[in-house]
Amino acid sequence: MEKMEAPESAVLALHDKFMGEEQAKPSLRSVNQAGIERFSLLKFPHKKHEMYTFVNTHDLAGTVFELAADSPVDAAWVQSKIYPACKNSVMVFVNGAYQENLSDLSGLGDAFKLQCLSDAIADDEIKQTLLDSLENENDVFAAINSAFVHHGVWVDILANATFANPVQLLYVSTGSGSTPVVSHPRLVVRLGETAELKIVVTYAGTRENYFVNAVNDFIVKDGAGVTYTQMQKDHAESWHCSKTRVQLHRDARFFGRNGSSGNRLTRHHYEARLKEEGAELHLSGASVLVDQEQVHNFVRVHHEAPHCTSNQLFKNVVNDKGRSSFDGTVIVDKGAQLTNSDQLINNLMLSDEAHADNKPNLMIFADDVKCTHGTTVGQIDEDQLFYLKTRGLSQELAKSLLTTSFVDSLIQTIPFPDVVADLNEVLLKKLEAKHA
Questions:
Q1: SS3 sequence, the chain?
Q2: Which of these, 87, 377, 411, 418, is most buried using a 10 Å CB contact count?
């Protein structure tokens, strides 16, 4: 390998330690090696990198991390983070490691198969999925995840399976009082034909000084459907990166939503491939940012077959010196006729120092498609504010009503009442506090 600069050298040194101390699982060592080789090729992004045009990773890349170790966590605190509807369908992870004693899958039955990724890699499709993703990996942080993955899990949903309640994945980071720590959660999910899965992923931390760097893969077979909701409510003094890859086969569906509270740096990366006719993808996200919190969304949607649909809707409320960005591209391949795709990004700015960058983009190589995109950046509508004041509302109450309704309209589309209540508590309370 060529000589690396200091930030890359720190990762390589940590990887040597990881491999040398036998922390790596033998069956995953080929993935670990391919991951570090890909990292060495990609390196940390500079400010002109096309995938990080709006994201400054200097602070994150310049921080020297240790791998998060097994750490005790208060069971009562964990229970308080489990949604009532998921009491018997919850998987708990601490610093990326699955905790069987804190989890409960009794409500899911035999159609829900859970296995350590180090064992599941014996499945040729799973091994090929991991190695193929690395061969074409363009995200340095996802490459780092593969370089260090050893706590990953594999979920196999049998054909025709359905479940009464959503499955919650609760990722807990314990942080550190001294040296910053990092965990690399990895999830691979395969849905058999016509299966249906509702899944809620929650990220939370007990204290500061951690980086959670997660990668999720979904393989959705013919006619199957996933309803996926991701809730990011990490400690304000932490970093968060997640990459979600989706493969949709014939008539498969993926409905993805995320709610983000932000922190020192949160970046969500979605890479979706609509591989066969009739595939359908819907992505949406809501964030509320105050102080100097950041949330960035990077989306690439590949329409590879005809008669497919994708929609994206993201809303951000940005106050103080908060920063948000959206960089999304829909690629319609030459043979993907009759594609239907929409992108819309709305930003509400509550401060002169707030910042929102938006880059919706279409790359169309077919001639019979319907594709649109748009973005808005604005402040509170003065006419609406005046109207509410004429109805007896105070200036602050009117502002609070307009800002909360802006993001609440998206939150209310989430089909899980427990998650809606959580988002109201985490996101909307931030707005109320600012207007109190």
A1: CCCCCHHHHHHHHHHHHHHHCCCCCHHHHHHHHHHHHHHHHHCCCCCCCHHHCCCCCHHHHCCCCEECCCCCCCHHHHHHCCCHHHCCCEEEEECCEECHHHCECCCCCCCEEEEEHHHHCCCHHHHHHHHHHHHCCCCHHHHHHHHHCCCCEEEEECCCCCCCCCEEEEEEECCCCCCCEEECCEEEEEECCCCEEEEEEEEEECCCCEEEEEEEEEEECCCCEEEEEEEEECCCCEEEEEEEEEEECCCCEEEEEEEECCECEEEEEEEEEECCCCCEEEEEEEEEECCCCEEEEEEEEEECCCCCEEEEEEEEEECCCCEEEEEEEEEECCCCCCCEEEEEEEEEECCCCCEEEEEEEEEECCCCCEEEEEEEEECCCHHHHHHHHHCCCCHHHHHHHHHHHHHHHHHCCCCCHHHHHHHHHHHHHHHHHHHC
A2: 411
